[in-house]
Design brief:
By secondary structure, the chain is mainly beta. It contains two helices and seven strands, in the order βββββαβαβ. This is Cold shock domain-containing protein.
Length: 126
């Protein structure tokens, strides 16, 4: 089942990283799911738009072999969020430097069941 290709879905997103020379980009998607990766399809490399970090775009997202791929990107607003990549990096550092997050009631400590010295936790959904 990992090789299934899903029907394209129209999506909005913001470019987090791009390499203009290689015409590649990584895109944050509006549905807050996995990031999408963009590389122009064969034959359209000269028609492909130049994507820059912070651009607001609309694109088709396709899941191929568990990877989200962006196709047919259209730049809606260049430099919409040029500081987004920096804010995300700063937010990651701030989160990492804070004390451990509060424990959820949906966390199961396996050490009590298996006589382990080091606690192992599994988050349960539902």
């Amino acid at each position: 089942m990992g090789n299934l290709t899903m029907k394209p879905q129209n999506m909005f997103g913001v470019v987090l990283w791009s390499d203009a020379a290689a015409q590649k980009a990584v895109i944050w998607c509006e549905d807050q799911g996995e990031l999408a990766f963009y590389t122009p399809a064969d034959g359209s490399i000269h028609d492909a738009p130049v994507l820059d970090a912070g651009d607001l775009i609309r694109f088709d997202v396709i899941v191929e072999e568990n990877v989200r791929t962006a196709r047919n990107p259209q730049v809606l607003m260049p430099s919409h969020s040029p500081d987004l990549p920096g804010k995300l990096r700063a937010g990651t550092r701030e989160t990492a430097n804070k004390a451990a997050p509060r424990e959820s009631q949906k966390v199961v400590h396996l050490a009590q069941y298996f006589d382990m010295d080091t606690p192992v936790k599994i988050a349960c959904s539902g």
